[in-house]
Amino acid sequence: MSVYKIYNKNISLPDFNRIVDDQNCIIEIDEEVKKNIINSRNLLDRFVKDGRIIYGVNTSMGGFANHLVPVEFAEELQNNLLASVASNVGYHFNDAIVRATMLARIISLSKGVSAISLDNFMILVEMLNKKVFPCIPQKGSLGASGDLGPLAHIALVATGKWKAKYNGEILDGDKALKKAKIKPMKLGYKEGLALINGTSAMVGLGAIVWNQTDLLLKSYEFVSALAFEGLATKMKPFDPKVHKRKLHQGQNICASHLWEILSSSKLIVDEKETEKDIQQKNENKLQNLDNQIEDAYSLRCTPQILGPIYDTLKFVKGIIENELNSSSDNPLVLVDENEVFHNGHFHGQYVSMAMDYLSICLTTLSNLSDRRIDRFMDRNNSNGLPAFLCKESPGLRLGLMGGQFMATSITAENRSLCTPLSIQSLTSTGDFQDIVSMGLIAARRANEILENTSYIISFELLCACQAVDIRGKDGMSILTKPLYEEVRKIIPYLSFDVSITPYIEKIKELFKNQKLVERLIESIDN
To answer: How many CA atoms lie within 13 A of 467 on its CB side?
Structure first.
């Protein structure tokens, strides 16, 4: 069992994802954090005694914000809020996404400016630690007053209502809490609002999508290198000396990595040898050559295509980390300012746009991978490989022809999914929420595109390994060989026709294997 203690400081995105992945990790709360939470609640209590008019405390909420509600109705008002906005529908999020959402909400509330009581804050922490995972339907969040619906389903379970998964069984909320020996929350003024008014669902899922996209991109350097070996690609376009003339950081990093990975390969082609071969065949007349001096864009332009993705991922990481470590609640009760601030920190536009950027990145990867797959399939564009990588009994066998159906279909699907969600605002709540972010939809969409892209790249990797075997695996780079060997543990060289579906599913899981990806990356550094 591992322990992570939440202090009054920021958490990094990699640390956040490590906690989410480790369901046995226990969250502890630093005493200074607890003190800040208590102080914020005490200040709100004083404001209430002073007769201040504060949203969600002695007013109603949303489209009823113009209604005053005496504080003696506080518990009823907060419970009604949860019941009213818990309107999501559809399949439930998996445990990892629920855990990420709960952890993100805990981090936001730990900033000590949301005026939640310490007792109720600690109940939320206890639910996470004891693996009481509320059932959260996926669809229905506007992402403007934060993720009201998803977070309300968590808060309902915390108050002994709705449904939760506990020890693999779905139970009524009160039974799940009772089995976990957790006392249900009793809500005071603003506390229901504090639990749900924020971007924690979209940022929790966004963090997961960012992490898995980062792993996929790091893996794709090695997939690309294997594909280059399989397609007998020319080396010179990846020389870092030429990329220094282009000032984009991501492009230079990608080119230098590819250059390093391929430096020991005997399957990659020396451009000088190609030039010499062409010169020998030059009869000082117009003629059609068997070889050409340059490769297609899907090979030669890889650093220029992946570079923007590197740089965008770095930007998105900053957005998600900033949002994760922010207070996304309204109103905020700031002890150091001795004041309450009505605000719009719950609005998810930052996360929504960041997820749209990720969707564009992933769809770009799909396009690139699809084009390389087509080169593997087409004997006219593969530098001597058999059609559909079918060396034995072509015609009687169909080789990897069917795999391209899948990859091309999913590439088209990704393109259709890549319409930006962050611009799809519709007014709601009596025109009170008149511009909304759709941030959780954007995160869900990016997650779907990520899954699709992983399948496409898995097939490209399968093709690359098949092509390398046909050309002669002894000529492989020492740095591409470990990934090749991992694939060969899953699927042999295909001299026979077989459904590749189970193999693709297993290859896809390689991209989620953080230890494998880290080992590959370390091989470049060493």
So the answer is: 34
pLDDT digits (tens, 9 = 90+) for 460-487: 999 999 999 999 999 999 999 999 999 9
Tokens of 227: 């594909």
Q: How many CB atoms lie within 10 A of CB 450?
A: 22
Backbone φ and ψ of 50, nearest 5°: -80, -5
Q: Encoding tokens for residue 238?
A: 């990846």
Host H or E run for residue 4: strand 3-6
Q: Give the position of tokens 């920190």.
A: 345
Q: Please, how many CA atoms are within 13 Å of residue 305, restricted to the half-sphere of its CB?
A: 20
Q: Tell me the helix, strand and coil percentages in the chain, rounded to 5.
A: 60, 5, 35
pLDDT, residue 294, reads: 82
Which CA distances in Å does 262 have to 127, 218, 521? 49, 15, 13
**Rounded average pLDDT over 188-200:** 96
Which stretch of DSSP H or E encloses residue 219? Answer: helix 200-230
Catalytic annotation present for 7: no
Summary mean pLDDT of the chain: 94
Cβ atoms of 206 and 312 within 8 Å: the answer is no
Active-site residue (options: 4, 55, 91, 350): 55
- Single-letter amino acid, residue 375: R
* Contact in structure between 249 and 310 (CB atoms under 8 Å): yes
Check the CA dihedral 503-509-515-516 and report its sign. positive
Q: Taking the CA atoms of the chain, what radius of gyration do you get in angstroms? A: 27
* Model confidence at 274: pLDDT above 90: no
Mean pLDDT of 490-495: 97
Q: Which two tokens stand for residue 510?
A: 């390689």
CB-based contacts of 282, cutoff 8 Å, min separation 6:
none
Please give the torsion angle defined by the CA atoms of residues 372, 376, 377 and 379, in that order, rounded to the nearest 10 degrees.
Answer: 120
Length of the chain: 526
Cβ distance 43 to 335 under 8 Å?
yes
Q: Concatenated DSSP letters for 135-188?
A: --EEE---SSSSSHHHHHHHHHHHTT-SEEEETTEEEEHHHHHHHTT-PPP---
